């Protein structure tokens, strides 16, 4: 079992360090929760859940990294940003990235991109990042983190992601309006059966300003055993 160092940079931006591998998810540093200069980070891999501006705004800071996303999104990065080192994958697929195994899972959201030709980024996604390859055999020694992306509540969390990919921790959007709010996010945490839950995608813009105590209260109301961690921006949590 390997430790995962999880650092939240506000909104949906997470840095995941696993062994000698550094991954950055959805780089967007123009948010009120972080004081970090994106140039300070040097990820090996950048994972993109979808093509909305508040998830890809800082991709140009990491031209030397390897990018992962849907084929439509990685093609867009190549055309618009000149990013050459990409892996296009799709829902259900698992790729090995250094010490990490990354599985792309479904998210229920939209994925139009802000271009003059109205391009689609394909299906929106989430990722499960694990220190071992997922199989049908339960592995109590494995450690896995689920980044839900932008999503509503979906039965896939209860029927597939929780029981088969077995995340120990989940970062779930809670800001409402564009994604789940506290109530649906709490139900997601319960369905996933995780030990640790992190709220994300909130307080960045007026429509998604919330009181995170609502999320903590809703998680308790489900009967979930998960511990809720409301991280400060730029704060790191070690998942062991």
TrEMBL record:
Query: Which SMART domains does the annotation name?
Result: Lactamase_B
* Molecular function in Gene Ontology: hydrolase activity
The coiled-coil segments of this chain are none
| Gene3D superfamilies assigned | Ribonuclease Z/Hydroxyacylglutathione hydrolase-like
Q: Which keywords does the record carry? A: Hydrolase
Q: Which residues form the Metallo-beta-lactamase domain?
A: 10-201
Q: What SUPFAM superfamilies does the database record attribute to this sequence?
A: Metallo-hydrolase/oxidoreductase (SSF56281)
Entry-linked Pfam families: Lactamase_B_3
Top-rank lineage group of the source organism: Archaea
Q: Which InterPro entries match?
A: Metallo-B-lactamas, RibonucZ/Hydroxyglut_hydro, UPF0173, UPF0173_UPF0282_UlaG_hydrolase
Stated family: Belongs to the UPF0173 family.
Q: What is this protein called?
A: UPF0173 metal-dependent hydrolase HUG10_05885
Q: What is the lineage of its organism?
A: Archaea, Methanobacteriati, Methanobacteriota, Stenosarchaea group, Halobacteria
